[in-house]
Amino acid sequence: MFLAVRDLRFAKGRFALMGAVVGLISLLVVLLTGLTAGLSRQSISAITSLPGDRVAFSTPAAGESASYASSRLSPSARDTAARQPGVTDAASLTLAPGRVEAGGRQAAVTLFAAEPGSFVAPAGLSADRVAVGEDLARDQRLATGDTVRIGGRSYAVAEVVPDASYNHTPVVWAPPSALAGTAGGGSVLVLRTGSGFDRDGFEWAVGARVMTVGDSVSAVGSYTAENGSLTLMRVLLMAVSALVVGAFFTVWTIQRTPDLAVLKAIGARTGYLVRDALSQALVLLVVGGGLGTMLAAALGRLAARSVPFVVDASTTLVPLLMLVAVGLVGAAGALRRIATVDPITALGAAR
């Protein structure tokens, strides 16, 4: 890095400006990553935390895909599903929009109705007891033992469960009786399966579409569109980063051509000059991207107080490493000029 360090010292203003550009790009990438993770968690956390390993939906109409909102599996389907080979347990789950009243305050929620005692229901769920998510408990100042009203009926809060949001609304786990008076919702089966599970045979016997819990997040209405749009933005920002870094080092290499020719004329190998250029790009990306990431993490912690935002290694360090990687790919575009510099041009530079 002998030449790289001296170049950085000689052209401090130029490299500072480029580092600021990289920092701004990393700031945007990390903020978008944290926001994407926050919105995803708020949209599907209640689904990804289901205790089963598969979800069965009613077979969608031609041209449509499975959906938690439109699935309609009757209670009799659970008994049929439980008898299928490889199914160790099956539980009905109904999702419906509703409203919860607590202390004179009302909140829109999604009711997850499950039979008390089934493996999918929280431990404290019963005919007159419900479980609420952490977000709802915090917003409505609820604790275990408090009373809430759903559909004109009172229920005691038996448990506060973590990570319980669906489609950007907090989740309340309730008995099926709480669905009276609601606008209706989707009914699915949550399955526990073993090694002998035959998916095709199960779908034919039950008349259902089966997905793993992880894959079933695509059946949540808001998740796919939101996640796809924000991911596309992040990819475009990464591409812009590669182009900007590549353009900068291409211009920088052109300006240094006489110097590189002199170095080659006195015996410097092409590999040495290439490694030096890449180390220079690495320093620029790590310093600029690191500062932008730290600023984004600080802003993200402030934003998390009012918007869904996640700050952890997956939303900070991973985007930074990806940014450094694509930046080095962009910088590699300038290496061809280094490899093709002719030492004879050193004589012209001397004149």
Task: Write up what this structure looks like.
By secondary structure, this protein is α+β, with helices and mostly antiparallel strands. The protein folds into two domains: 2-43 and 224-350, no CATH class; 51-212, no CATH class. The chain is built from eleven helices and ten strands. The chain has helices at 2-10, 12-48, 75-82, 134-140, 199-206, 221-255, 257-265, 270-303, 313-332, 335-339, 345-350; strands at residues 54-58, 87-102, 105-114, 129-133, 147-150, 153-161, 165-166, 169-174, 186-193, 208-212. The longest helix has 37 residues, at 12-48. The protein is elongated, with a radius of gyration of 29 Å. The mean pLDDT is 84.
